[in-house]
Amino acid sequence: MNIILKNIKQLIGITENSDTIKKGKAQGEVKTLENAYLIVRNNIIESFGPMSECPELSIDSHDCAGRLVLPMYVDSHTHLIFAESRSGEMKMRLHGKSYQEIAEAGGGILNSAAKLHAMSEQQLYEEAQERMGNVIKQGTGAIEIKSGYGLNIEDEMKMLRVIRVLKSLSPIPIKATFLGAHALPTAFKNNKDAYMYLVTKEMLPRIAGEGLADYIDIFCETGYFSLDDLKQVIEAGDKYGLKAKVHVNQFSSFGAVKMACEMGALSVDHLEIMNEDDYSALASSNTIATGLPLCSLFLDIPYTPGRQLIDKNIPLAIASDFNPGSSPSSNLNLAFGLACSQMKLTPEEAFNALTYNAAFAMEVQNEVGSIQVGKKANLIVTKPANGLEDIPYWFGDSMIGSVVV
Ligand code: NIG
Ligand code: FE
Q1: Distance 250 CA to ligand 1 centre (A)
Q2: In this structure, which ligand is nearest to the CA of 89?
């Protein structure tokens, strides 16, 4: 696509390079140009500048008067491939059952795995494709997608093949994460070691052999997988060149952040429950903290302490955690609102968490995540707006007028 956007009220999120992640004070720095133009050529940002210097070109032109233009969001943590909703669990929760109790009563991840087992690869793909369309409409311009509802070799590979097809057909960058250690299948109830063997010694080699995954993940949590399992998974990933992006500290803190940081994980995600050791491990590592505020809203659990993380000079990304159990929403506009109202971020800090930093959390920072010459022109054009703060301000609504992908 070739197009020139003119009279942009504010062009937001400009960078000269994407060499370093934003943390501390820099997390709140957003470079903006007032009254700007931007030229897209062959789907790439070719140039931009003030309207006073706008060249005359004979390509399609779009008047953005009164509107903001920003890079699309980057969703660095989702479980977009699933077979069915688990809306029934919401009623159980409203009757006082916790996430863990629902899982013990036959709901949860194992329920999603049974439904996924019964669904054909083709249908799984068609439903995922429809969700992708919705995700893009809501402003997401790059996405990470996990397996983890297979829990046996065939079904894990089925999920990852669906992601591979999405990758080849989608206009936005996609990364795939192998999450075999998401929950312990009933057949392994009394033999976790055997399941860990299956994940690390049988599933992983085949998956890596076929190039089906970019990252490896584990749900390290009381009642799910332990510190020792976390270590095994990260080591196994290392062997096959897959960096770790891990679920830690959703309900409890017992050393997983420290271990993941020391072992070089790319990101640690959730972090609703944090202690001082967790903060210091993060502060002295290169691991990215990822908050998932839609999950906190839906499960009514604490929000990731975003304010504290930024104040401690730890780079923060924010993602949706889109999944049928704990976050049935892929709406990053709402996540933006919650990041400000609940996690106490400024609009600028939240914006960087949802775009530039999230791009680092799935290693697409050279392709997307900011307005930079040479990056993909995956752009949000807002409705008429005063400034960036209008997005979190209209928190239950979408300020997106249109998207350019
Ligand atoms: O990130 N916590 C673990 N995994 C998902 C939820 C999966 C599910 O409930 O289906 C999460 O919240
Ligand atoms: Fe998740």
Answers
A1: 9
A2: 1
Which class in CATH covers the domain with range 74-360?
alpha beta
- Verify whether ligand 1 is closer than 6 Å to residue 328 (CB atom): no
Q: Tell me if 321 CB under 6 Å of ligand 1.
A: yes
Domain 3-71+368-404, classified CATH 2.30.40.10, yes or no: yes
Q: Is the minimum distance from the CB of 109 to ligand 1 under 6 angstroms?
A: yes
**How many angstroms separate the CA atoms of 70 and 394, rounded?**
17
Task: Tell me, in angstroms, the distance from the centre of ligand 2 to residue 250's CA.
Answer: 10
pLDDT, one tens digit for every residue, the chain (405 residues): 999 999 999 999 999 999 999 999 999 999 999 999 999 999 999 999 999 999 999 999 999 999 999 999 999 999 999 999 999 999 999 999 999 999 988 899 999 999 999 999 999 999 999 999 999 999 999 999 999 999 999 999 999 999 999 999 999 999 999 999 999 999 999 999 999 999 999 999 999 999 999 999 999 999 999 999 999 999 999 999 999 999 999 999 999 999 999 999 999 999 999 999 999 999 999 999 999 999 999 999 999 999 999 999 999 999 999 999 999 999 999 999 999 999 999 999 999 999 999 999 999 999 999 999 999 999 999 999 999 999 999 999 899 999 999
Ligand 1 site, residue 246, Cβ cutoff 6 A: no
Single pTM value for the model: 0.98
Q: Which residues of the chain form CATH 2.30.40.10?
A: 3-71+368-404
> For 265-355, where are the E strands, in sequence order?
267-270, 288-291, 316-318
* Rounded CA separation 60/37 (Å): 13
SS3 at position 79: coil
Relative to beta strand 60-63, strand 44-50 is: unpaired
Task: Using DSSP bridges, classify how beta strands 400-404 and 243-248 pair: parallel, antiparallel or unpaired.
Answer: unpaired
Contact 51, 35 (CB under 8 A): yes
Q: 250 in ligand 1 pocket by Cβ < 6 Å?
A: yes
Output the CA torsion sign for 196, 197, 199, 204. Answer: positive
User: How many C-alpha atoms does 8 have within 13 Å on its Cβ side?
Assistant: 27
